[in-house]
């Protein structure tokens, strides 16, 4: 009887985590760095990634908790950092992932002069370098950024070319939206040393804190994937700040999400704007389902960053 109970408990744990995952490796500058292994003993583990305990999601109730920062209660580093040049790419590979749909959000934070290893990332220090939500179609039945991770387990992010050298934390987050009004947050953090000739860090207006960046009332969090509006809406308000534009100027004012089309209207289809100005550096210029401007500003080129996102670099 005791053996049977133990087996049942183990099987339940496997089932609970089988639909979830975390970043397992980071590849940058030709080197692959191992992520944390949450179900193994912490003893002896060394990783550029901050320790976390399980693949289980964080929920709305956790938005005011320090756990929302890096999926832990402020655990510090293990003494390792990855190295990436400003303008270089970071390819992350998840251990497993099955939830659809999901948004992808990636942040960085400049560590203090003492370095990252003994710093927990507290304060209004985080800026967003990448995000994507609904790619095409409707909220309820369209293609989402997280589909790429479900299908390939990979996501590639470009570190802003203008970013000043130094030590940083990077925070990858998936926001699973498959349950009506019950989003699931999956954040993980890792330590980086950024090299190169960049000279800019974001001004204060781009910075947010964790906890603090999100509210339960944000439209992209108080979200019902099965609502009548979701059957026709073709945009999704990604939570958090705008993606940093690579300059030291102020962040743009938040925009009010467009109202969804009436339920009787036919779903909108992507179309190319009648007139397009050049897309600024770090702006989106392409990707599957993208219907915006595709011509980059002088001195930049539209660069593919996965199937669903290209940006001017």
From TrEMBL:
<keyword id="KW-0186">Copper</keyword>
<dbReference type="Pfam" id="PF00734">
    <property type="entry name" value="CBM_1"/>
</dbReference>
<dbReference type="InterPro" id="IPR000254">
    <property type="entry name" value="CBD"/>
</dbReference>
<dbReference type="InterPro" id="IPR035971">
    <property type="entry name" value="CBD_sf"/>
</dbReference>
<keyword id="KW-0479">Metal-binding</keyword>
<dbReference type="GO" id="GO:0046872">
    <property type="term" value="F:metal ion binding"/>
</dbReference>
<keyword id="KW-0964">Secreted</keyword>
<feature type="signal peptide">
    <location>
        <begin position="1"/>
        <end position="19"/>
    </location>
</feature>
<protein>
    <recommendedName>
        <fullName>AA9 family lytic polysaccharide monooxygenase</fullName>
        <ecNumber>1.14.99.56</ecNumber>
    </recommendedName>
</protein>
<dbReference type="InterPro" id="IPR005103">
    <property type="entry name" value="AA9_LPMO"/>
</dbReference>
<dbReference type="GO" id="GO:0005576">
    <property type="term" value="C:extracellular region"/>
</dbReference>
<dbReference type="GO" id="GO:0004497">
    <property type="term" value="F:monooxygenase activity"/>
</dbReference>
<dbReference type="GO" id="GO:0030245">
    <property type="term" value="P:cellulose catabolic process"/>
</dbReference>
<dbReference type="GO" id="GO:0030248">
    <property type="term" value="F:cellulose binding"/>
</dbReference>
<keyword id="KW-0503">Monooxygenase</keyword>
<keyword id="KW-0136">Cellulose degradation</keyword>
<dbReference type="InterPro" id="IPR049892">
    <property type="entry name" value="AA9"/>
</dbReference>
<feature type="region of interest" description="Disordered">
    <location>
        <begin position="243"/>
        <end position="270"/>
    </location>
</feature>
<keyword id="KW-0732">Signal</keyword>
<feature type="domain" description="CBM1">
    <location>
        <begin position="277"/>
        <end position="313"/>
    </location>
</feature>
<keyword id="KW-0560">Oxidoreductase</keyword>
<keyword id="KW-0119">Carbohydrate metabolism</keyword>
<dbReference type="GO" id="GO:0008810">
    <property type="term" value="F:cellulase activity"/>
</dbReference>
<feature type="compositionally biased region" description="Low complexity">
    <location>
        <begin position="261"/>
        <end position="270"/>
    </location>
</feature>
<dbReference type="Pfam" id="PF03443">
    <property type="entry name" value="AA9"/>
</dbReference>
<keyword id="KW-1015">Disulfide bond</keyword>
<keyword id="KW-0624">Polysaccharide degradation</keyword>
<comment type="function">
    <text>Lytic polysaccharide monooxygenase (LMPO) that depolymerizes crystalline and amorphous polysaccharides via the oxidation of scissile alpha- or beta-(1-4)-glycosidic bonds, yielding C1 and/or C4 oxidation products. Catalysis by LPMOs requires the reduction of the active-site copper from Cu(II) to Cu(I) by a reducing agent and H(2)O(2) or O(2) as a cosubstrate.</text>
</comment>
